[in-house]
Amino acid sequence: MQLKVYSVLLIILTSLFYSDTYAQETMANVYGRSLQSLNGKWDAIVDLYAQGRGNKIYLNKKPEGKTDFYEYSFENGLRLNVPSDWNSQLPELKYYEGTIWYARKFDASKETNKRLFLYFGAVSYRCRIYLNGKEIGQHEGGFTPFQIEITNAVKEKDNFLAVEVNNTRTVDAIPAMAFDWWNYGGITRDVFLVTTPQVFIEDYFIQLDKYKSNKIDARVKLSEKIANTSVTIEIPELKIKQTFKTDHNGEIKTSFTVNKVTRWSPQSPKLYDVIVSSESDKIEEKIGFRNIWVKGENIYLNDRPLFLKAISFHEEIPQRKGRAFSEADAVMLLSEAKALGCNMIRLAHYPQNEYTVRLAEKMGFLLWEEIPIWQGIDFKNEETKAKAGKMIQEMVMRDKNRCALAFWGVANETQPSEPRNQFLKYLIDRCKAIDTTRLITAAFDLVRFDRDKQVFVMNDPFIKELDVVAVNKYMGWYHQWPVSPEKAVWDVAKGQPLIISEFGGEALYGKIGDAHTVSSWSEDYQATLYKDNLEMFKHIPNLRGTAPWILFDFRSPFRFHPINQEGWNRKGLISDQGYRKKAWYLMKEYYDRIK
Ligand code: GCB
Fold first, then answer.
1. How far is the CA of 158 from the centre of ligand 1 (A)?
2. What's the pTM?
């Protein structure tokens, strides 16, 4: 009992510590604000031995007197693109793990009664931000946004912005020491200077009630705790225009009735223009409305049972051997998912950029988004837990208005233990503190064949905390078939919906080989594996979705085979050069048959 009290205290203390040193939470819908882009070429210094901070290179000093000298300069050196990972920009940086400094100058128009914020879509993995020679913020976590207010620190002309970025893997990080994807470092997403009014609409959450199709729930929060300010929500197409008064927290929480909403679905991804305005601010975006819930072993979308025809991809463009960061990249990734006949994407294994999320919604994909709690996480470490909590909160806050988002994923492949359970429970609570409507899931790799009962089973009581249970199972690849696929019956998570969140095997595109030899690395064997797995799926009574692993071959230092892999995970249905393998056609046929 006492131990519990201490650990709760520790969590509170560590989260206090982090909220002080971390950058601030981001405002909702940054893309709908008044923006100045800071993307482009930035000056860069590769700081392998981490000397820059001690030498205060962020001061950007130049020799003035005759005896002055400085052994660094940001000018006339390396230039790196922002947004982008650094690994794909120079051959020497392919495997680089360490610190790189980024710097640039910018001017800002300082208007009276306006505030200015620096916004970073993502910096991988940790960073410190320095403006005009002073550290103004830090952030940890490579896949979520953050912002720092600079209203008082910024000048009209010639601001010097330096960002110290570090992607060293550490045991207390998320993900930790080893993971099956490339450890891309850098300022990997958009950087903006955001201008807002003095009192602005900081956050809003507008969506359909979890079950009712005619009730919209809305929360709006101003940047200041000002009572009695009018806030108006408009949805012109639905003839809604309602005005409310803020409470003493500067918030409104309300619900209103709507008639004849066309609900968003993969077949008809209808979005409505929504306008939120206050006495001093106004923000618009497109929002969709839908209901998603679970009853027994079924998932219901807009009151109808749903089968998830899903696929996963990493945030990577294989042809470019670099991280995806633009709308054009999102078009490439999502068009291939569409061609496969999918209605859902599992954004593996971390929150991907907003271009992908927003375009997916427009194109009619449901989404599963997760934070990189990927094996090997230090569940006993309270600081890691606080970091994970912050990370999942940043993810939920960014995407909570996206009706496409159906699942918050809290973990991938974890082993049962008390610290694990408490850690994951804490993450679920953090999600639910913001959003009680999405489905909570996690992927497990614990399914095994019970020889006595002759069925596949799984024992992890934690699944009761989840709305939908997800299982990664590599039959025919990491696991030999204990019985033939047509006898492979599952008794897993009975009473709950189950998704096969990963299955598959590797094949080198174009390789012809024995269709029954795993190590042939052939498209033929991969096709057999798919046929067998699709057969097995018929014997999983509560199966409500599948997600082959994975859409494209992807880069991973996990993969050593000199000919077949060469640093690539070859489980893609599509090769690194964009060619479809035989298994792609089988999966396409399977998905096309499911209505
Ligand atoms: C898994 C992981 C995924 C890997 C995959 C593989 O279970 O969740 O991240 O890439 O297996 O290819 O082994």
1. 47
2. 0.95
